[in-house]
Amino acid sequence: xxxxxxxxxxxxxxxxxxxxxxxxxxxxxxxxxxxxxxxxxxxxxxxxxxxxxxxxxxxxxxxxxxxxxxxxxxxxxxxxxxxxxxxxxxxxxxxxxxxxxxxxxxxxxxxxxxxxxxxxxxxxxxxxxxxxxxxxxxxxxxxxxxxxxxxxxxxxxxxxxxxxxxxxxxxxxxxxxxxxxxxxxxxxxxxxxxxxxxxxxxxxxxxxxxxxxxxxxxxxxxxxxxxxxxxxxxxxxxxxxxxxxxxxxxxxxxxxxxxxxxxxxxxxxxxxxxxxxxxxxxxxxxxxxxxxxxxxxxxxxxxxxxxxxxxxxxxxxxxxxxxxxxxxxxxxxxxxxxxxxxxxxxxxxxxxxxxxxxxxxxxxxxxxxxxxxxxxxxxxxxxxxxxxxxxxxxxxxxxxxxxxxxxxxxxxxxxxxxxxxxxxxxxxxxxxxxxxxxxxxxxxxxxxxxxxxxxxxxxxxxxxxxxxxxxxxxxxxxxxxxx
Length: 483
Known about the structure:
single chain, five-stranded mixed β-sheet, two-stranded antiparallel sheet, disordered C terminus
């Protein structure tokens, strides 16, 4: 840099050039400073985000893991701990069990004694009674029953036109497979999750019937209308009632995640597979009908559809209380868990309790819940659980006023369990029509199970266009005490 005396010797043009050079350097330095400032600001923001992330991870590090016992984690995702594998002696002896005799034997074989096994005397004329009875169970030879149909025809001598005989009922032209074989294939596919390749091989090896995978797909496709009709009857019976229970689980259709919904109560159960988990599915199923009571978990899409009231699942809340306990809450969660388990125990004994007793229990549970809600939890898990209870409090003990309402939504989870197994074994469906057919078939099979009807009988009845058999007469329950 030149000194002051040297600047005086510069001409005006040289001074102007020097000033321009210095201004360019100043601007470059300002731009660099601005860049450093922006970079520093970004680093500070990133540092703040990292600090928040570290704080969140530090807070989460002290939380217990979520398991099937303290959350809605599926049992299949739970990790079982190692334990001693040594056999333990039975804690309490129990009487031995034996196989009971078949209620409807195909034939009977009465064998009288001819000789005494002690002295070999002739006992043919001695009066004898049954001293031992047992079954010998065997399956008959497995082979297909094939009926060759030959429709005769000829030339009419009257009109000189060709005629042909009419096919007998049940032996019309078309698919060569009868309803029993079709029902067997449907049952194995959708109840036992057997792939088409293995099912084709099983038909060949076990029954001696060669059926290609394409023919199996055609059997399923041809049955769609029959199962859709049966499912519509099940849905109509559900909507006539006053109580509806629901739940949902994921399912794969093509390369997308869809949802299997179940709507059920008592003897009827209906499955719906849709690409949505939202309220649109729940609105679609009942249409304009609103049941008096709706049983579900606290998922928002399933709340608010009852004409009178909702019953939330207490089993879900018990698991959430257990998670709060595992997180260290000792103020609110232990008392709530005990209270909810007491409520479920009362629900299981409702058949033997009088109406006045149930009302008294309801008052006691409400009073205990009031006392629990006055407690101030010190941990975040306890506060979160208490806020959840305040939000659904009026839906906790609805089952005490109506004996037909269950206190939990476990019935929905049990109904969905076969679908979860099918998903894990087969990875579900490639087409939308197959997913819809599966929902209809599961509706028929689950409803038949609740009506004590065999699944094969239910499938055959559906394929033949007949309604499911009514529930067989059962012994009446214990008399309920009056108020």
